Amino acid sequence: MARKKIALVGAGNIGGTLAHLIGLKELGDVVLFDVFAGVAAGKALDIMQSGPVDGFDSKMVGAADYAAIEGADVVIVTAGFPRLPGMTRDDLLTKNAEVITKVAEGIKTYAPNAFVICITNPLDVMVWVLQQKSGLPPEKVVGMAGVLDSARFRLFLAEEFGVSVEDVTAFVLGGHGDTMVPLTRYSTVAGIPVPDLIKMGWSTQEKIDAIVTRTANGGGEIVKLLEKGSAFYAPAASAIAMAESYLKDKKRVLPCAVLLNGQYGMNDFYVGVPVVIGDKGVEKIVEVQFTEAEKAAFDKSCDAVKKLIEDFKKLGV
Ligand code: LMR
């Protein structure tokens, strides 16, 4: 079987971590693209040199020319600026809109058949721009957010219940911003929904509410601690789970930002919902049933994304 080609656009902390994980999981060969050619080439060579120790043969090259991503099977986009303490993700709109527009042109020209995963913030708008400007089919352009937000939710719930993260499932839907919607009703320990666990006396509503708030602020908590940038290990791991499901046709059910066209009563914008990812990309959008309160929270989150798309349109990029 031919080795897969994975292009990483952006050779910062997330790009380097992605390349390392791709090597460790033997998912394919890597092109690490960055406008800073030396950084891309240096990181690619450094990670490839860990291969003999870790036992992987992935070829890794750096590049500053989009031609190098030609024919990529998967493209993961991390290019752009991270936020700093005191900023919201939305504050990155103006700076990152231009970056993503250029990336979209590069993908359109050189990797039109790729499965594209966007990580750049503000996520839901940037992935929408990437799809619009590249013209790739919507089922092949997705945003990484829900997997990351749900991973944070799972970790905090596992700590609260004193159980393995492996036995905790959780869903966070909506936009990847302050209005995201962690759904406790759809979160479980070994299949037992969190509200039932509260009834069983295993936790309290107050403690779960605090975990929901901590999850929604999860990115900001890391930004504050790091002082000079944002999270990269968990975002990279989350994007790799999505890429792996595509490359291996695993058909995992993962919360991702996808283009809604009628689903959830929404149209023509990206927001996080559960989807099935297989070798055709997004193969199914799962429409979960909401309570009135959940629906109101989801609508509020969608409204925040819609407003940001309007702000993007005013930029005239
Ligand atoms: C995250 O959630 O970690 C990322 O969106 C980065 C950020 O700015 O919070």
From TrEMBL:
Substrate binds at residues 83, 89, 121, 152. The active site is at 176 (proton acceptor). The keyword NAD applies. One of its GO terms (biological process) is lactate metabolic process. It comes from the Bacteria. GO terms for molecular function: L-lactate dehydrogenase (NAD+) activity; L-malate dehydrogenase (NAD+) activity. It holds the Pfam family Ldh_1_N. Its EC number is 1.1.1.37. Residues 148-313 form the Lactate/malate dehydrogenase C-terminal domain. Keywords: NAD, Oxidoreductase, Tricarboxylic acid cycle. NAD(+) binds at residues 10-15, 34, 96, 119-121. InterPro entries: L-lactate/malate_DH, Lactate/malate_DH_C, Lactate/malate_DH_N, Lactate_DH/Glyco_Ohase_4_C, Malate_DH_type3, NAD(P)-bd_dom_sf. Residues 5-143 form the Lactate/malate dehydrogenase N-terminal domain. It catalyses: (S)-malate + NAD(+) = oxaloacetate + NADH + H(+). PANTHER family: L-2-HYDROXYCARBOXYLATE DEHYDROGENASE (NAD(P)(+)), L-LACTATE DEHYDROGENASE. Belongs to the LDH/MDH superfamily. MDH type 3 family. Catalyzes the reversible oxidation of malate to oxaloacetate. This is Malate dehydrogenase.
